[in-house]
Amino acid sequence: MAGIRDVAKLAGVSTATVTRALRDEASVTAATKAKVRAAALRLDYVPSAAARALSRGRSNLLGLFVPDITNPFYAQVAQGLEDRAAEARYHCVIASSHLNPERERHLLTSFQDGTLAGLAATTVGTDEGFTTALGATRGPLVLVDRRPRGIKAPLVRTDNRKVTRGAISQLFEMGHTRIAMISGPRDFDTACQRLSGFRLAYKAAGTALPDELIRHGHLGEAGGYKAMNELLELDPRPTAVFCFNNLVTVGALKAIREARLRIPVDISILAFDDMNLFPLVEPPISAIDQPAYEMGRAAADLLLRQLDGERGLGDVVLPATMIMRESLAPPSTR
Amino acid sequence: MAGIRDVAKLAGVSTATVTRALRDEASVTAATKAKVRAAALRLDYVPSAAARALSRGRSNLLGLFVPDITNPFYAQVAQGLEDRAAEARYHCVIASSHLNPERERHLLTSFQDGTLAGLAATTVGTDEGFTTALGATRGPLVLVDRRPRGIKAPLVRTDNRKVTRGAISQLFEMGHTRIAMISGPRDFDTACQRLSGFRLAYKAAGTALPDELIRHGHLGEAGGYKAMNELLELDPRPTAVFCFNNLVTVGALKAIREARLRIPVDISILAFDDMNLFPLVEPPISAIDQPAYEMGRAAADLLLRQLDGERGLGDVVLPATMIMRESLAPPSTR
Which InterPro entries does the annotation name (chains A, B) (predicted)? Predict the structure, then answer.
């Protein structure tokens, strides 16, 4: 089997650069990374973590736990994780709990035998049984998107609060004063952070926020549909609605379509998480876009570094960006 | 641990009915199934396959191999598989090869140690190494959507050829005579079956099919975008285009939008596989809808029956249905 020195020689770089390149570190240029990866592939070089895992008879499987694989956000996280893991000769399996804490706990228990070399997890459980099961999985752990209460491990997330505050402030600048939010479960810290950014924008605008404009606890298309129908009943109706995730937005859009209201003339819509068809919806939907694929890569990277013996790794916070399309406009003056 | 007799007693049915209800057989009414499941849950009853698996120290994990988890078709198959498996106290892991045969082969190799109790697979590999690796996985095997050459196992699919032939015939009836198809890789039997249905509709209409109207080998948004741009260069342009899957359709729609053509005035569009946002696209996209969730349930069912000792199971062919929306119209007469 080829060693790191062979790869360094073939790529014309130092062994330290080989290590950094295969870890996808920002200090190495894309060109050097490509050269090193080509050399590693050509020589069939297995990087150290995987090599050590194999020589110890350890698994080369990384696990990704997600609450709902039909949510394209998680599918993209999965793809980033898989691609980064494959570079280090690790492979990934995905387990989806379908938002069912009991199923999630059973799944965690299935992996307490060392089948997985490491685990990246976005979880839904909150009780003690869950915390115990998550703590009992062997090997490195990385959290993605959300931190369950009491779990210490590096977290990959975006700055939910800041990006939401900025986006909602733009709606105030357009002239909206009655902006509603369809939020998620109160024990999801992502929902809390987005709601906190939403409240901060209200505060900065000096506008009072009536309780009726916040709808808690909604998930999936069905949740968005129900919450939007409730909001459309309000008098006066909100002039803009912020949906805390993508599938909630899909349900909300269907409710608006059924009510024969026009976006953005009758109501403006802002989604958290972009979708590949949002640019083609009538009208194209504005969204706060999280770099889901990059979040998956970062999670794999944190697992690989732990497998390489690194400890005390910090959280990774990636930027989310506002994509302005046609679903946002000043409120109609009628 | 509660036995089948306890469940039968609590539910007020025979033990044979308990077995059939927990297998989700059509001969049992929905009401009886609900009663039996409630009793099984209350008594914490583990059905026989799982019980035997556990008593033999066998895995309670089913695997699902898919080529691309970012394709919502596979995410829905996964959800159906998970839900059905959970009823029998099995859990599922998903592995996505990202259309990379080498990665798929490595993944298959990772599971030759008996980690999985059974495997449901939609695969991309075609070479001998792949066939060997697939054959070497232990335990029951079920194929989903496509059958790789030389692999004998029950297959869950829809009648691709028949539904496509019917849908394309409707386009001829609308007056189209120049209908193009963006097809997938030639070694995907789904692509072949859909293409075969497409050709049959041409034959039934007595219309010659020029080679330039068929674009082979396209996958994903990028593939659909490229193929549609090629089709838009043709003179005369096709008046309707059939896209062989959902992500190919997304790319094709983006190319049409960029070319500032109007659907369906300038060009009609038909997709294979529906998506949750197709009804909200401008205009709403007509699609042939496969029952992906039900396909996943059927695949789990075939695995569970094999785990229960059944042999010689046949293929399951589920109906796909045409959903007419506004992206199809008679060709413009200009």
Answer: HTH_LacI, LacI/GalR-like_sensor, Lambda_DNA-bd_dom_sf, Peripla_BP_I
